[in-house]
Amino acid sequence: MADLNAHAGERQNRAAAMRLNLFAYALVIPVTLLIIGLVGYPFFFAIWVSFTDQVIGNVGKFIGFTNFAYLAGTSTFWAAIQNTVVIVVVTDILKLGIGLGLALLVHQHFPARGIFRSILLLPWAMPAFVAFLTWRVMYQPIGGRINLILTQTGLYPHVVDWLGQRHTAMGSVIVASVWRGFPFWFIPILVQLYSVPEEFYDAARADGANPWQRFRGVTLPGIKQVIIVPTLLSSIWTANAFEHVWLLTQGGPSDATMVFPVLAYFGMQTQRIGEAAAVSVYMLPALGILVIFATALMMRDDEQ
Amino acid sequence: MSTQALGTVEEQDRRSQALARRKLIIGRVLTYATLTVAVLLVAFPIYWMIITSLKLPREIYRVPSLWPKVFTLDNYEKLLADGGFLLALRNSFIVATVVTIVSVVISSFAAYSMVRFRYRFRGFIGRIILFAYLTPASLLFIPISIVMAQLRLGNSLVGLILVYLTFSLPLSTWLLQGYFRGIPRELEEQGLIDGHSRLGALVRIVLPLSAPGLAAVAIFTFTGAWNELLFALVLITSESQRTAPLALNYLITSDVLPWGPLMAGAVISSVPLMILYFIAQRFMVAGMTAGSVKG
Q1: Of B27, B141, B289, which is closest to A188 when you measure between CB atoms?
Q2: The domain B74-291: what is its CATH number?
Q3: How close B1 gets to chain A, by Cα (Å)?
Q4: Which residues of chain A have pLDDT under 70?
Q5: How far is CA B85 from CA A193, B51, B159, B227, B265, in A?
Q6: Which residue does chain A place closest to B36, by CA atoms?
Q7: pLDDT grade, residue B14 (50/70/90)?
Q8: Helix axis angle, A273-303 relative to A228-239, nearest 10°?
Q9: What is the pTM of this model?
Q10: Per CATH, which fold does A66-303 belong to?
């Protein structure tokens, strides 16, 4: 009798566990299906398309590496590689450096620092397309504000077509991107700085550490976690950013600011889809390494 | 002798105090000076956007002054006159709101499931979500536009909403997992004893306690959808389906750059986000720190 009861109880337990399991799956399934359908499937589809001669209205057939070979023979493609690397490296170093520097300054105790913090967050609160449209207007050769400041203050007497010249276009794109993007670093670093205990600094000071040693020994370890993973993420996103170049220069003049995403978009516009997809797929190896690193680190941080 | 020594110590003390004081003052001055320059550089483009939108054309194109002689709403009238931009704003609003609601609801379910339960494929699903979060739009826009065309959702807001879920779902799920983990299991178990179902416990106990996280996620999702340009550019072909960034994009691809109306549009598009930002700066700051948010 008791045996039977235990049996029934076990069965009940198993049924309950099963229900719970079903419930858990039911909750996670909508997101999983949508992600598989909207990210997973297109991801592999893109790779397949890059090996075909697909154009709009025609599915195309497998043509091996033809698209890749063709791209590698164009100067625009090489310009895109070079520019993408330059933008990622320079922009991210500047954003991190400025964000870190300003966070260290605002972290000090002084009146009105809340106001400084709020204003310094503003570029991030603005839509990116608004930021870049505004910079586009400011860069204009005639009536643009930047030229006016330079000529009025006598810093540089000539009118410069910032976005229209090969040697100034890239710098101009980078300045605008840094302006919009540094709060991505500034805010998390600032928040993290508050979590470093004051006593650590006192102890370091008692040991006779100079400011640089205090920064290396106390500050950096304290904020490391908001630097390493975000650096990887930021590189991935900067390499794939479209708006800054599109709204400022559209990749011009003569490819001086051409980057991968814009090149892929142009390919799409000319309706040669296979080629356009090959442009994106070319980015995969470099991107893949960054993504795998970032995923590993994020999973590890997450488990802690 | 001893008094003399004492005097030197005192003097030294005073001198080192004065030195420390001077160092502090110099430090302060340098801090304020640097920050003031930074704030000016940050604020100027925003100021310029607003002021340009309020100027007459002759004040914009010739020698633009820092302060307009005449303030005018002409640019706003010009921008809004044919109703196209208003329609675009409405479209942006619909898309961003729907994406936000759908995304917050279903990703909080998924995040809860992954934090609370142990089951097969849990780790795998977690990995897929993270990969999806890191897979950039520039890789996906080509195949997605083909898929959307096949589904006959190409030139529609519904299609745009579906596509924006590709970046909002992974981000929201990832962020919410972090928030849910911080909620003690005991509170939930108490709820179960009090007669709530599992779903009830999620809705009545876990979600209210994660309100700041939900707010951060909602803000990021809304902002992301409101700002998106690339997919809109690829998917939307008819004027009636344009979103705000798209409408402004087509203003500059015409031959003449209409600065006044362009900046008026920039100001109007910023307003909803600025309002969000002022209401919820605190949540935004917390969320940025938690998740390294895409922008």
Answers
A1: B289
A2: 1.10.3720.10
A3: 31
A4: 1-8, 56-58, 142-143, 154, 157, 301-304
A5: 43, 20, 20, 15, 8
A6: A116
A7: confident
A8: 170
A9: 0.86
A10: MetI-like fold (1.10.3720)
